[in-house]
Amino acid sequence: MSSGGRFLIVGGAGFIGSHFTDHLLGPGGAAGVTLYDNFSSGKEWHYAHHGADARLRVVRADAADLDALCAAMTGHDVVIHLASNPDIAAAMTDPDIDFRQGTVLTRNVAEAMRRTGTRRILYASGSGIYGDLGEREAHEDHGPLIPVSPYGASKLAGEALLSAYAAMFDLRAVVFRFGNVVGPRQTHGVGFDFIRRLRQDPTRLRILGDGMQSKSYIHVSDVVAAVLLAHARVTDPFRAFNVATGDYITVRDIAEVAVECAGLTAGSVTYELTGGRGGWKGDVPVIRLNTDRIRALGWTCSRGCRDALRDAMNAMRRELDEGHA
Ligand SMILES: NC(=O)c1ccc[n+]([C@@H]2O[C@H](COP(=O)([O-])OP(=O)(O)OC[C@H]3O[C@@H](n4cnc5c(N)ncnc54)[C@H](O)[C@@H]3O)[C@@H](O)[C@H]2O)c1
Questions:
Q1: What average pLDDT does the segment 231-245 reach?
Q2: C-alpha span between 165 and 251 (Å, rounded)
């Protein structure tokens, strides 16, 4: 798929951003890729292998700084906006975090687009906008939207700002409600925690909640393909897409995959369940996303949850062996 043009990736040094970078600097890729990142969770080693590529530029700055963002954005055709607080539970002790490190950043990105005349944005929203629907499958047009975490609220606010800017200022916004994204260079998430904890103590594993939380875990390569396909196809001013595998896995089953990927024998690890329906306050224990809309564009998902998680956790183990924290 051709991805021509100049891309600015806000949050580009992070996990998902590094895979967009790989793709956009690959064959038939972009004319230029700028990573704009404050390196709060982004890492230099995520893109170091592109060091000699003159199309790559890195701006170390905060998306809270609107002037710096405008300066970096000038001359780009497309913005991929990935910068936000990744930790849903952080709001328990810092209730404003998703406003400051979510809503405000998306407002700045939209405003920088208006000021610089940048027309197209691809926004990493999240399934958190739907709230807790239990076993009900969320379609993109589901309503009412009742988020149950400041993180979900901030993603929804970001979508609202982008739809408003698209209508008022002639932008084109495509927003994506991903399942849990997994793969090499992951910076957080349940598999990420399990592999680290098993390395510290291979005899026991603490599992938050009752272990029956059930969600979709999608490989980052499938996410990148879905986003760039929608970018190529969508012509509406504002369009939302769910992006998930179509299958689901419980946290307890993820623990089994983690034990296997850690090279341990099944049954040799004691699971310590903290109890309760969700892993933490604001966690939605069951998420079901309908993906007919993105599939109708011709997207197919190359791996189910178990394969995606296995690839991710094997990569994490290698990354830890190589000394990446
Ligand atoms: N990983 C998932 O499972 C998942 C699922 C749904 C949605 N998302 C969304 O996708 C986006 C990317 O997620 P990720 O997993 O790659 O996370 P990540 O933490 O690896 O990447 C986010 C990047 O944004 C940067 N950043 C954060 N605040 C910034 C700021 N104020 N200014 C500049 N840069 C800043 C970080 O340094 C990091 O490089 C996030 O918005 C996340 O909410 C992720």
A1: 98
A2: 38
Q: What angle do CA 101, 230, 161 make, to 5 degrees?
A: 35
Domain harbouring 178, CATH code: 3.40.50.720
Cβ 63 under 6 angstroms from ligand 1: yes
CB 220 within 8 A of CB 182: yes
Give the residue from 86, 298, 261 showing the smallest Cα distance to 180: 86
Kindly tell me if the per-residue pLDDT of 155 is higher than 70.
yes
For the CA of 181, the closest atom of ligand 1 is: 3
| 86 C-alpha to ligand 1 centroid (Å) | 6
Q: Is residue 33 part of a domain?
A: yes
Pocket test for ligand 1, best of 19, 69, 181 (most atoms within 8 A of CB): 181
Give the Å distance between the CA of 240 and the centre of ligand 1.
19
Which residues belong to the active site? Answer: 151
Same domain, 210 and 138: no
How far is the centre of ligand 1, averaged over its atoms, from the C-alpha of 267 (Å)?
Answer: 35
Alpha-carbon distance 44 to 104, whole Å?
A: 25
Region 86-93 average pLDDT: 93
Q: Give the range of the structural domain holding residue 263, as residue numbers without chain letter.
A: 190-214+248-293+305-321
Phi-psi region of 131 (alpha: psi -120 to 50; beta: other; left: phi over 0): left
Model pLDDT for residues 22-48, shown as the tens digit of each residue: 999 999 899 999 999 999 999 999 999
Q: Report CA(9)–ligand 1 centroid distance (Å).
A: 11
In a domain, residue 69? The reply is yes
Give the mean model confidence (pLDDT) for residues 82-105.
96
Same domain for 224 and 260? Answer: no
Q: Do 195 and 234 have their domain in common?
A: no
Q: CB of 32 closer than 6 A to ligand 1?
A: no
pTM: 0.97
Of 37, 174, 309, which is best to mutate to test ligand 1, by the most ligand atoms within 8 angstroms of its C-beta? 37
Domains in the chain: how many in total? 2
